[in-house]
Amino acid sequence: MRKPEPRFYALACERLGVQLAETIFLGDAELCVTAAREVGLQAILFRHNAQASADIEACLTANRQRP
């Protein structure tokens, strides 16, 4: 099993004890990022450090604002 197989992401989250929707996946391959989104992860395509940091912060902020 490996990325971008959907079961890969689900198993990783299961083993970590986290929900798919509360997990941020950061990857540099668009195919893997798309697959992660399709199974319910918050997924970010890495282009450069500043962009990735900003996108991660945006996810974290949005998650804090959810009831």
Q: How do the strands and helices of this protein lay out in sequence?
A:
Layout: H1 6-16, E1 24-27, H2 30-38, E2 42-45, H3 49-65
Parallel strand pairs: 1-2
In words, what does this structure look like?
It is a single chain. With 67 residues, this protein is mostly helical. The protein has a two-stranded parallel sheet. Helices cover 55% and strands 12% of the residues. The chain has helices spanning 6-16, 30-38, 49-65, and strands at residues 24-27, 42-45. Helix 2 (30-38) links the parallel strand 1 (24-27) and strand 2 (42-45).
Would you tell me the overall average pLDDT?
Answer: 95
End-to-end distance: 35 Å
- Beta-strand segment tally: 2
Order of helices and strands: HEHEH
> Spans of 5+ residues with little confidence (pLDDT < 50)?
none
**Tally of helical segments:** 3
Q: Can you summarize the main beta sheet?
A: 2 strands, parallel
- Summing up helix and strand content along with how strands pair, one would put the structural category as mainly alpha
What is the global morphology?
flat
* Biggest sheet: strand arrangement: 1-2
Share of helical residues: 55-70%
Tell me the Rg in angstroms.
12 Å
Strand content: 5-15%
